[in-house]
Every structure is written in structure tokens, then in C-alpha cells.
Amino acid sequence: MNQLTIRTRILASFAFILLVMALMGGVAHNRLSAIDRNVGVMKTDALPGLRYSTALLATWNELYVLSWHTLTADSEGERRRYFEQRHEARQRLDAQERDYETTIFRDEDRKRFDAYKEVRANYDRAAGIFSNPAAWAGTVAADAIMRGPLHTHWNDGIKALQAVVHDNDSTAENAAANIVGSVGLARHTIEVSLLVAALAAMVCGYLLLRALTVPMQSIVKLLSEIRGGDLRPRMALRRKDEFLAVEEGFNQMTGELTSLVARHSVPRSRSLPRSTRLPRPRASSRPPPPRPPPPRRRSARPRARSRPPRATWFAPSMKSRAQPSRRPGWPAPARWGCRAWKAPCSM
Questions:
Q1: H or E element that contains 47
Q2: Angle between the 6-41 and 149-227 helix axes, to the nearest 10 degrees?
Q3: pLDDT tens digit string along 225-246?
Q4: How many independent structural domains does the chain possess?
Q5: 332 within 8 A of 340, measured Cβ to Cβ
Q6: Residue 339, pLDDT above cutoff 60
Q7: Residue 124: what pLDDT?
Q8: Is residue 106 part of a domain?
Q9: Chain mean position to CA 76
Q10: Model confidence over 323-333: pLDDT tens digits?
Q11: 141 in a domain, yes or no?
Q12: What's the alpha-carbon Rg for the chain, to the nearest Å?
């Protein structure tokens, strides 16, 4: 772990968190796709098939009931009216069969519907005698057909249509259960993925924090020791990342600084033989004597020569005036702030 650079660790942390988020997104997309498929099954297969198969079952029963009413009608007008209703029911049954065929997408559904169509064909062949109601109305043969093979084929059609209805109902229930399961699984997956992403972010952040703060604490402690005047400590971080360059540069700098300080801080007495070294003075409790004041430096300015002053512009009568007397050895008097006996004053 110490061989990885700080840049690599940061990139690896971000990559891991992004991988967890991508996994969460993939699972959520998979669940949403499953929900979409089940919704499509319910929209195009289960619910329309259930509606059309239920309508087929109702029309099939209506067709059989109208056949009985046609057979047992009291008058010719009533018999013809029932016959026309029976004809309309057959047409409606054909239209419902065509509508149901548009909702068939499964092989099992196709097999069940083919079984119903075979029963329907047998029923139509047995009911062919009722094409002319005036010929068979009230006869014993017609009654025998209604109670015999026609009733048998009608029962077979009821069973076939009930199987179709049950199949579509089961398909709708399975699709709804799959939708509920997919939603629940997607919710749990998102919650777990968020928890894993949060834990991964915390772990990666903690590792990055230690990777930066631990060597920085060692560096600060080492700098505190060096600031106290001890140049012997060396940096030993045992890292293979960017801190390795810091460690090498710091150790090289402290080594050169130690050699430079040692070179300039050696006393001169160590360069002499041991026999010529002066003994170190012992510490005394008496205060040292006061130092004499430094001698006054003489001015490098030449002493003024004794000569009569020159005439000034403001006192022409002073040329004839005698100079003031002064004691021997005294300096020449100064006039109006000018150098004595040197030059006239320039006001």
C-alpha cells in the first residue's frame, strides 16, 4: 500500500466509488427492464387475452342458449327471431376469435386456442342440421342432436375456453408478481448499493487522510527537533510515493547543513597541539572589574595657525582694530559660527 502514489490512491478511490455506483445503476437498469417486460406482457398478452377469452366464453354460452330457444320456440316468428340472434352471436364469436389471435405470443397459449378451434369446428358440423329451422322444429331428431353430440361439443368448448381464460389469468398474475418483485429487488439493491458506496467513501477517505496526515505529522515533529538546534535526526517515512522525494531531499539538506555548521563552529584551539592549548579559566564568583573608558580619539583636523584674520565685508573698520588677546595654548576664538582664523564668514 505504501508503494502507491498519492495520485494513484486518489484515482483508485474515485474509481472504486464510481464502480459501486455503476453496479448500482446496472442492477437498477436490469430491474427496470424486467418491470418493463412484465408491463409489456400484461399490456399486450395477459390483459387483452383475458378480456377476449372471457368474451369468447360468454358468447359461446349465449350461442348454445339461443340454439335451445330456437328449438323450443312456440311460434314461427319467435323461432326466426332467435335464429337471427344466433346468427349474430356466431358472427360476434368469429370477430372475438380474430381479436384473440392478435394477443397470442406464447406456444402454450397457441396450443390451448387451437384445441378450442377444433372443438368449435366439431360443434359447427353437429349444428349443421339447424340451418333450416322450419325442417327440424319440434322433431325428435333435433332434440336428440341438441341433447347428444351438440351438448357434448358445447361442454368441450366450455372446458377449452376456461383453460384459455385460466392461462391468461395466470399470465397476468405472474406478470404482476414479477413487477412487484422487481420493484422490491430494485429498492433493496439501491439501498444496499448506497450503503456500500457510503462505506467505500468513508474507508477511502480515511485511508487518504492517513496517507497524508501521518507523514505530515512526522515531518512537523522532525522540524520541531531541528528548530531546537539538533541536526542529527533524519527523516525515515518508509514510503514509495511522493514523500520519498521529500525524504531524500530533506535528509540531503540536513546532512549538508550539519557539515557546514560543523566546519564553521570548530574552535581555533582544536587546531593547535594539545600541549599548546591554554587551560580554560575557572568560573569566579567575583564580578569582573570595570573596563576603562576608551581613549579619546584626536581629530585629524589640523590645528589652526595663529595669524591675523582677514577682513570681512561687514566691518571694514576691523582691519585696523586690534585682535583680542588670548592666552597661550587656547584655541582661536570663533566668530559668528565660522572657523576661527581660517576664512571669513559667508553669511
A1: helix 47-71
A2: 170
A3: 888 777 788 888 777 777 888 8
A4: 2
A5: yes
A6: no
A7: 87
A8: yes
A9: 84
A10: 555 555 555 55
A11: yes
A12: 62
